[in-house]
Amino acid sequence: MRSIRIQPEDFDPVAATAALAANNLQVGAVVTFSGIVRRDDGLSALTIEHYPGMTEREIARHVEEAERRWPLLGLAIVHRIGRLVPGENIVLVAVAAVHRHAAFEAAEFLIDYLKTRAPFWKLEERGAATGWVEASENDDSAAARWNPP
Amino acid sequence: MKILYFAWVRQKIGKGEEDIALPKQGCTVSDLLTMLRDRGDGYAEAFADPSRIRAAVNHEHVRFDARLGNDDEVAFFPPVTGG
Fold it and tell me: How many Å apart are CA B81 and CA A123, to the nearest integer?
């Protein structure tokens, strides 16, 4: 079971976990990561833009890579687009495996790559002021640790 | 060929996409970026510092030395910030 969705609507991490577990009774571990819009320095909203077509393809490429590296039994990725306010969900990565180790690692791999390779951009609003979020070197080094030495 | 712009690149240029004809002999992503920058105004502003620009061809990240043909879809955008 593999589900990749780009949508304005909210998602339910609990329902995603239950769906992955119900899909295959070999599943012994589901790791879910939820990214949430935080009120950073008075942030009032984030608007997320993406490149339709490339986004799905880029995520699918990394999902395939994760499936090659770890014995996964299913995964669900949701990334929201449009305008979101602090406290709202923004991204979900849920990974199912027989044991926790593969599920933890694959979930971390996927979110690291989602942040550095998938074509999304965030526009921040602070009151009337707007500005684009700059890419983070920390995110680049987080993704780079998955590369072969 | 079809060119797409995203985030502040789109805002500076003032449109999200356009069609242009490439030189017959083809060119690289870098050549295209220079051609666009030479149009001036928003283009010059968007492409003033190529180190802040990333490119994709047919939905895949590419380096600036990638070659382009008229059937390709190319996109220019800032480093991505999803997740």
Answer: 10
